[in-house]
């Protein structure tokens, strides 16, 4: 494991030394890049001593000859090529802005642009800076970018005397995230992952429909994560306001019946099926051709059940791995287990959608993975992209277990 550690300028720069040590303990070879302001907080010699590698500090180091200057000018390309992961900690507001917008005026920012592998960013800053819309917009851009993982700061007492989010996450945790990100590389190569995402819309007439609050974010995060891990991904999506993840085959649908046809049609070519869509359970079987007009009388709508797509997949899945979701407002564990049995899933992802800040529409989620074997993994609140990788980690374990039984 070859990790390029970028150190930004902030009080937390000294913790980057602990991080370098934690990475080495986990078996990584670490090369360090320090920004000019990082060197105001900590000496390059600290990192050189810890990692046993020289520390890169300048884009144009003044050499004794033109040849020296040239080799230092292309050093960022070499650093980008020779390392498997770029980890920036502490990642300042300035670095987030540079990365989000592609500015390249020093060694770290030019290396970032030249780097094609996974990027882990661990921000740290004052709480008001963290909460500023400009910083949050840059973070949102970077969270969406393929291959990027943000390790959010902890909340607590900050060096500036204020309290709130902004403190660099625990260096051991950052090291674990970085090492896991490297280990996950390409472990779904050869798999075709079929994912359903978003809500469905069930028309009542030409202008009205029944739907639900699903944003599709969890399913899109799963598609992005599976693609990053080498899978071919087919994403069957209900109507959502999200950009399609790069490198994913999109199938856009509107109703439960359209989603059923798309999923069952693509099931034969898939090896893993993840049903994260919030499918409407009822629809109007015969939608009127004209808009229904208002009258003074009460109305009632006659609804028929929609096809249960997951249950149908469960009946015909063969040895494919089938993952269902259970969005509940109560009795999550019992309901998830019941759905796993009834719909013949290998795993159910249970989430309580009644909690503020997680679940529907949110960027974060907190889920419980319930496996057929009886194993249960609780995943605390985290960005959906991180949750997606944890779900895929369990799927790769299921795949390995199935291979052992063959
Ligand atoms: N599902 C499906 N087709 C449906 C309804 C649900 O494929 N018509 C799938 C969802 O994609 C999800 C799982 O079934 O993976 C559970 O969905 P959920 O709405 O939680 O459960 P329901 O089976 O609809 O049961 P209930 O509404 O009673 O909770």
List keywords for this structure.
406 residues, binds cytidine-5'-triphosphate, five-stranded parallel beta sheet, Rossmann fold, alpha/beta, elongated, eight-stranded mixed beta sheet
Architecture overview:
This protein has 406 residues and is of the alpha/beta class. It folds into two domains: 2-184, Rossmann fold, CATH 3.40.50; 192-405, CoaB-like (Rossmann fold, 3-Layer(aba) Sandwich), CATH 3.40.50.10300. Helix content is 37%, strand content 24%. It is built from 15 helices and 19 strands. The strands form five sheets. It has an eight-stranded mixed sheet with strand order 12-11-8-13-16-17-18-19, sandwiched between helices. β18 (364-371) and β19 (376-383) form a beta hairpin. The longest helix has 22 residues, at 384-405. It is elongated. Bound molecules: cytidine-5'-triphosphate (CTP). Cytidine-5'-triphosphate (CTP) is lined by residues 256, 275, 277, 279, 281, 306, 308-310, 324-327, 339.
- Supply the CATH class of the largest domain: Alpha Beta
> Low-confidence stretches at least 5 residues in length (pLDDT < 50)?
none
Bound molecules: cytidine-5'-triphosphate
Number of domains: 2
Strand order of the largest sheet: 12-11-8-13-16-17-18-19
Q: Helical proportion?
A: 25-40%
Count of helical regions: 15
Structural class: alpha/beta
How is the quaternary structure best described?
single chain
Q: Which range does the strand content fall in?
A: 15-25%
Average pLDDT rating:
92
The CATH homologous superfamily of the largest domain is termed CoaB-like
Q: What is the count of β-strands?
A: 19
Query: What CATH architecture label of the largest domain applies?
Result: 3-Layer(aba) Sandwich
Q: What is the CATH topology classification name of the largest domain?
A: Rossmann fold
Q: What is the terminal-to-terminal distance?
A: 32 Å
Give a short account of the largest sheet.
8 strands, mixed
If you compute it from the alpha carbons, what radius of gyration comes out, rounded to the nearest whole angstrom?
Answer: 24 Å
Shape type = elongated
């Amino acid at each position: 494991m070859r990790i390029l550690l970028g150190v930004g300028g902030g009080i937390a720069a000294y913790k980057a030394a602990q991080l370098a040590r934690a990475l080495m303990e986990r078996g990584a070879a670490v090369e360090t890049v320090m920004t000019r302001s990082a060197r105001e907080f900590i000496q390059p010699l600290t990192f050189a001593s810890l990692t046993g590698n020289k520390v890169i500090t300048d884009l144009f180091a003044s050499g004794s000859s033109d040849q020296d200057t040239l080799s230092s000018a292309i050093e960022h390309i070499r650093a980008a090529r020779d390392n498997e992961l770029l980890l920036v900690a502490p990642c300042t507001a300035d670095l987030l802005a540079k990365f989000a917008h592609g500015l390249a005026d020093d060694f770290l920012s030019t290396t970032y642009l030249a780097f094609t592998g996974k990027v882990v960013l661990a921000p740290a800053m004052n709480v008001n800076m963290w909460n500023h819309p400009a910083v949050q917009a840059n973070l949102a851009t970077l969270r969406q970018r393929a291959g990027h993982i943000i390790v959010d700061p902890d909340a607590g007492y900050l060096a500036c005397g204020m309290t709130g989010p902004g403190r660099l996450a625990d260096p051991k945790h950052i090291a674990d995230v970085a090492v896991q990100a490297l280990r996950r590389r390409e472990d779904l190569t050869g798999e075709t992952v079929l994912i359903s995402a978003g809500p469905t819309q069930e028309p009542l007439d030409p202008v009205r429909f029944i739907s639900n609050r699903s944003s599709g974010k969890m399913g899109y995060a799963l598609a992005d994560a599976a693609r990053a891990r080498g899978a071919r991904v087919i994403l069957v999506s209900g109507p959502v306001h999200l950009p399609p993840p790069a490198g994913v085959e999109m199938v856009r649908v509107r109703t439960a019946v359209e989603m059923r046809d798309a999923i069952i049609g693509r099931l034969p070519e898939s090896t893993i099926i993840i049903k994260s869509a919030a499918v409407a359970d009822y629809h109007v079987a015969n939608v009127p051709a004209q808009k229904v007009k208002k009258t003074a009388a009460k109305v009632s709508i006659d609804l028929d059940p929609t096809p249960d797509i997951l249950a149908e997949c469960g009946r015909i899945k063969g040895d494919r791995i089938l993952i269902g979701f259970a969005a509940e407002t109560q009795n999550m564990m019992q309901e998830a287990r019941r759905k796993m049995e009834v719909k013949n899933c290998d795993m159910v992802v249970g989430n309580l959608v009644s909690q503020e800040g997680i679940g529907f529409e949110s960027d974060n989620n907190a889920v419980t993975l319930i496996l057929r074997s009886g194993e249960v993994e609780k995943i605390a609140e985290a960005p959906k992209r991180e949750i997606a990788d944890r779900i895929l980690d369990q799927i790769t374990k299921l795949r390995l277990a199935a291979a052992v039984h063959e």
